[in-house]
Design a protein that fits this description.
This protein is mostly helical and 243 residues long. Helix content is 58%, strand content 3%. It has ten helices and three strands, in the order ααβαααααββααα. It starts with a helix and ends in a 12-residue tail after the last helix.
């Protein structure tokens, strides 16, 4: 007969408790590593590309197009167009545009059209590591990755990755693939008008076309070009956060 059953259970419980307490540390280490690696190594794919490839398995003749291009091999008109379209305070904030978030919350609370307030850094976090849709879990993970990216990547690297992993058409990812598919030229030769058309289809690249823009894309592209000029053109991206 075992006279000391609790003595054996106690060390076992202690081991499981220590393992449970180590789990957050392990998750933290993995996510930090996930962010540090693409700070220096160009990503060969993204979470959104993987999801789209899985969806495309049941589609006849689907081909995902993606080709990395370094920042200096992308027309300077595209990064400023992306900023003018989606995140005009990009050089100045640290990952979150609090003013835009407040306005979005106020508008949504009034029952108007649901507005988002995602920055380009948040888009990189979501596209590179996560999945579409909402939910507290996904939003929380997006915020965590956004914070890590802003702490470890320079602004130019964030824009470089975004320009390379953004979806500009169904299965068409990145500046080079989009420039070749829609304009028959390399990303380095994109004009201001073409860059604005690419930025105008975001965030609904399956609904709108940069190659054959309808009235909405034409109006939005013209608005983006005006915003880009008002910001000061590509030189605006040289500003420092808080400046």
């Amino acid at each position: 007969m075992d006279e000391f059953p609790n003595d054996r259970r106690a060390p076992r419980k202690g081991r499981w408790l220590r393992r449970l307490l180590l789990l957050p540390v392990l998750v933290l280490a993995v996510t930090v590593l996930q962010v540090l690696v693409p700070r220096f190594v160009d990503p060969g794919t993204s979470a959104f590309m993987v999801w789209r490839q899985v969806d495309g398995l049941g589609e006849k003749d689907f081909t995902l197009r993606y080709q990395w291009r370094d920042y200096d091999r992308i027309s300077p008109q595209l990064p400023i167009a992306l900023v003018a379209a989606e995140d005009q305070k990009f050089p100045l904030h640290h990952g979150f545009d609090m003013e835009a978030i407040d306005k979005a919350l106020e508008g949504n609370a009034r029952g108007g059209r649901v507005r988002g307030a995602s920055t380009i850094t948040q888009q990189v976090a979501k596209n590179l590591y996560l999945w579409g849709g909402g939910g507290f879990l996904r939003k929380g993970m997006e915020a965590w990755y956004t914070l890590l990216i802003e702490l470890t990547w320079p602004k130019q690297r964030i824009l470089e990755v975004y320009a390379n992993i953004a979806e500009f058409g169904d299965g068409v990812y990145g500046a080079e693939a989009a420039a070749q598919a829609f304009f028959g030229k390399p990303a380095s030769e994109l004009t201001a008008a073409e860059a604005a058309r690419l930025a105008a289809v975001l965030p609904h690249p399956k609904k709108y076309s940069a190659r054959n823009p309808g009235p909405y894309v034409q109006r939005r592209a013209a608005w983006i070009q005006r915003n880009a000029r008002n910001l000061g053109g590509p030189a605006y991206l040289e500003r420092k956060p808080g400046g």
